[in-house]
């Protein structure tokens, strides 16, 4: 089984993400410097979550499955990272569906690691250069105890009928580092 059979056409998804980031005012050379630490695949049902979890387990190692926000989230380290242009994406995040919310199957976001303070990063990217682009900075995760982030959320006209967004989250630590830290915390609290 191939990763594209499990998550779909990640190249088209990533092309869309980077196109939206450029239209959102990000510089191409800036984006080349930022590593993508993971890609997120959402599911609509718990049954589909379990099916995708089994499939991903064949292509990598389950680093952790933990409850966050009332639902399970699995993080896999792929045996063969996803290759996209000059980027290598080692992890895939698989969250179970949120209760009382319409959930869709498919790729939803990527996360990139930045070295800049969050506020200056947001200030340096204030608004889209394309006036037709719907773009929001989501800042509610700035105060998270573990792995705070800022999120650049897009409503892409190609998916607006699905009433969902796609996004890029920017944080200071890779998800793999965060998972190691969380596992260490769990061991210490036993």
Automatic annotation (TrEMBL):
An example Gene Ontology molecular-function term: dioxygenase activity
One Pfam family here: YecM
This protein's record includes keyword Oxidoreductase: yes
Signal peptide positions on this chain: none
Keywords (A to Z) from UniProt: Dioxygenase, Oxidoreductase
InterPro entries, per the entry: DUF991_YecM-like, Glyas_Bleomycin-R_OHBP_Dase
Gene3D superfamilies: 2,3-Dihydroxybiphenyl 1,2-Dioxygenase, domain 1
Domain of life: Eukaryota
Entry protein name: Dihydroxybiphenyl dioxygenase domain-containing protein
Species name: Dictyostelium discoideum
């Amino acid at each position: 089984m191939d990763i594209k059979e499990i998550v779909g056409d990640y190249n088209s998804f990533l092309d869309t993400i980077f196109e939206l980031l450029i239209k959102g005012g990000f510089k191409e050379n800036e984006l080349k410097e930022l590593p993508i630490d993971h890609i997120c695949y959402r599911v609509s049902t718990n049954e589909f979550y379990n099916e995708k979890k089994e499939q991903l387990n064949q292509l990598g190692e389950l680093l952790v499955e933990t409850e966050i926000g009332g639902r399970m989230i699995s993080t896999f380290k792929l045996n063969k990272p996803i290759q996209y242009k000059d980027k290598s994406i080692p992890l895939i995040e698989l969250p179970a569906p949120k209760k009382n919310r319409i959930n869709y199957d498919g790729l939803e976001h990527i996360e990139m690691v930045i070295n800049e303070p969050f506020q200056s990063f947001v200030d340096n990217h204030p608004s889209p250069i394309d006036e037709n682009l719907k773009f929001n900075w989501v800042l509610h995760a700035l105060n998270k105890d573990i792995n705070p982030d800022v999120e650049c959320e897009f409503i892409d006209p190609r998916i607006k009928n699905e009433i969902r967004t796609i996004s890029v989250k920017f944080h200071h630590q890779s998800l793999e580092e965060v998972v190691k830290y969380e596992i260490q915390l769990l061991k210490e609290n036993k």
